Amino acid sequence: MNIDMDAMVSTTAISKSFGKYLAVSKNNPVFILKNNEIESVLLDIDTYKKLAEAYELVQDTVLAREVFEQPTINPDDQDVFDIIREAGAKDNAGKA
Predict the structure, then answer these.
(1) Are residues 32 and 40 in contact, defined by beta-carbon separation less than 8 angstroms?
(2) How is residue 6 annotated by DSSP?
(3) What integer pLDDT is reported at residue 49 of this predicted model?
């Protein structure tokens, strides 16, 4: 990831001119430096929401992959629909 040097600002500059950098963050992320290291990023809310949604999608994909890669126990070589019906019947029996 390439970071524009002009998009970096010190914590001191942020504290003195927060409104200015908040306005800048509407168009581009502002990277906040502490001791010459990037400490945080100031983003507009729409960009944050997109990142959060993308992160959730990645997490869901990872979870789905883990579930589908689990070995299944099917000694009777049942059809998946038979297994689903059987599980539904067990659920309904428990409710009675």
Answers:
(1) yes
(2) G
(3) 96
